[in-house]
Design goal:
Strand order of the largest sheet: 2-1-3-12-11-4-5-10-8-9
CATH class of one domain: Alpha Beta
CATH architecture of one domain: 3-Layer(aba) Sandwich
Structural class: alpha/beta
Radius of gyration: 21 Å
Number of strands: 12
Oligomer: single chain
CATH topology of one domain: Isopropylmalate Dehydrogenase
Strand content: 15-25%
CATH superfamily of one domain: Isopropylmalate Dehydrogenase
Number of helices: 12
Distance between the termini: 20 Å
Bound molecules: nicotinamide-adenine-dinucleotide
């Protein structure tokens, strides 16, 4: 039986509630499978700013780096909104991604059949279900490019002084593009074998390089069909024909935006898991797509399923226990089929509304029955 070290970063808002639930589920996995999980809880985000004066203390980073995988709740909240960029809670996420060299972010947008009517899209658009994997480049592009803010001495054509001027630079190298494309094409091989590369090649030089590299890499995956799509069109097609999308591969910023849009199609951001991966053998980071939901924090009503499903991805990708991962996913499906819901995914007329702890117990019960 194997032994795994899992670094747990509860973070802020509902983060501690959803990670606590997920640890309970992982303990049930340990009990049943015989594999041993040791959990090391560390601070990052707003709570780390309040306690240690910085969003990502070195000690937290060390524990994360030495782990087999990192489970993260969420960071941020209005309390820290006025802090400058590098001191904000979200800087912890960027720091973890950079230090763990997590260059691929996989976000699944699955519309569970039981929640079909929760989708804001017309029933005829989602009748075949939705199952989209968004592969987002995570350590390059505009979020990590050069940036600056300085007074400009220029004027607009009408003579108005420009005042302060800011810039953020988008940069991508061939090597960065190639490795993320390979994650996308490899993932597509295990799915419906279709890749959509989303860019803005009619405007951006970086996008034109993405296309060039795609043309070079794609022949290595002859079974996978691929297409290019401008990001503005992709944002429309996600609403018009989401069922036809399989794997979307795109840059950091476009992926950030499109994955939230795809998430909304599924009806609840509280259901969406994500995995961030680096080179094989290094710890991956697993977290729900949603944020810290300060509006419902501490009320015991947060939906833990996105974090629990993220742990299922952890079992698959980092711990080499795909069968246990599949069982967790099945348990979540069984709980939904039985009509149990947290408040965020409740449908008209449904009355089985459970809190965070109760729905977690249902998942564990369902898992133990499998
Ligand atoms: P959010 O995802 O926290 O919340 C958006 C809405 O969805 C809220 O109404 C919230 O109550 C609801 N919601 C989210 N997760 C839920 C869940 N599990 N169960 C039930 N309802 C849920 O997004 P936001 O309000 O834009 O951001 C709040 C804070 O979170 C901000 O400080 C933001 O920077 C931060 N944030 C962090 C991450 C992260 O840690 N990865 C991601 C996004 C936002």
């Amino acid at each position: 039986m194997a032994k795994f070290n899992i670094a747990v970063i509860p973070g802020d808002g509902i983060g501690p509630e959803v990670t606590e639930s997920t640890i309970e589920v992982l303990k049930a996995v340990s009990k049943r499978s015989g594999h041993e999980f040791s959990f090391s809880e560390v601070m990052a985000g707003g709570i780390a700013i309040d306690t240690c004066g910085e969003p990502l203390p070195e000690s937290s980073l060390t524990v994360a780096k030495e782990s087999d995988a990192v489970l993260l709740g969420a960071v941020g909240g209005p309390k820290w909104d006025d802090l400058p960029g590098k001191s904000r809670p979200e800087a912890a996420l960027l720091g973890l991604r950079k230090e763990l060299a997590l260059y691929a972010n996989l976000r699944l947008a699955i519309l569970f059949p039981e929640l079909k009517s929760a989708s804001p899209l017309r029933p005829d658009i989602v009748e075949n279900g939705v199952d989209i994997l968004i592969v987002r480049e995570l350590t390059g592009g505009i979020y990590f490019g050069k940036r600056g803010l300085a007074p400009s001495d220029e004027c607009l054509p009408d003579g108005t002084p420009k005042g302060l001027e800011a810039f953020d630079v988008e940069t991508y190298s061939e090597a960065e593009i190639e490795r993320i494309l390979r994650v996308g094409f490899t993932s597509a091989m295990q799915r419906r074998k279709h890749v959509t590369v989303v860019d803005k090649a009619n405007i951006l030089e970086t996008s034109r390089l993405w296309r060039k590299v795609t043309e070079r890499v794609a022949p290595d995956y002859p079974e996978v069909a691929y297409e290019f799509m401008y990001v503005d069109n992709a944002s429309m097609q996600l609403l018009r024909r989401p069922s036809s999308m399989d794997v979307i591969v795109t840059s950091n910023m476009f992926g950030d935006i499109l994955s939230d849009e795809a998430g909304m199609i599924t009806g609840s951001i509280g259901m969406l898991p994500s995995a961030s991966l680096g080179t094989p053998g290094t710890p991956g980071m697993y977290e729900p797509v949603h944020g810290s939901a300060p509006d419902i924090a501490g009320k015991g009503i947060a939906n833990p399923l996105a974090t629990i499903l993220s742990a299922a991805l952890m079992l698959r990708y980092s711990l080499g226990l795909p069968e246990e991962g599949a069982k967790i996913e099945q348990a979540v499906r069984d709980v939904l089929s039985a009509g149990y819901r947290t408040a965020d995914i409740v449908l008209n007329g449904e009355t089985n509304i459970l809190g965070t702890k109760e729905v977690t117990e249902k998942v564990i019960e369902a898992y133990e029955k499998l």
